[in-house]
Write a structure and sequence with these properties.
With 104 residues, this protein is an alpha+beta fold. It has two domains: 33 residues, no CATH class; 61 residues, Multidrug-efflux Transporter Regulator, Chain: A, Domain 2, CATH 1.10.1660. 46% of the residues lie in helices and 12% in strands. The chain is built from five helices and three strands, in the order H-H-E-H-H-E-E-H. Strands 1-3-2 form a three-stranded antiparallel sheet. A hairpin with a 2-residue loop joins strand 2 and strand 3. Helix 1 crosses helix 2. The radius of gyration is 16 Å and the shape is globular.
């Protein structure tokens, strides 16, 4: 069901003002405007905390700092276990990737 008479810009601004990460805003806008990606195109694989540390080449404390900053949001898998969607980890990597000349 699409939102009638509301532009994408307005929807994006309202959802963005709630403090959600940019990728979540994009997903919410797509859902509200009936442009959601198909289930088969979304990565549902979840990495454990340890696997995420290994994937990002980070220590446990480094990953905890990133979580505390809200740059990578974990999923609660059980009372004592968290994980991270592969798609979220990939988006995080892409957001941090810059051409090496920009690092100067």
């Amino acid at each position: 069901m699409a939102v009638p008479d509301v532009s994408e810009e307005v929807v994006r601004r309202v959802i963005g003002s709630l403090g959600f990460p940019r990728d979540r805003v994009d997903q919410a806008v797509a859902c509200l405007l009936d442009q959601a990606p198909s289930v088969t195109s979304v990565s549902c694989r979840v990495l454990s905390f340890r696997e995420t540390c290994e994937t990002l080449s980070l220590s446990k404390s480094g990953l905890r700092r990133i979580m505390a900053a809200g740059e990578l949001v974990p999923l609660r898998l059980s009372e004592r276990r968290i994980g991270f969607r592969v798609s979220d980890v990939t988006a995080f990597i892409e957001s941090r990737t810059r051409p090496w000349r920009e690092l100067d």
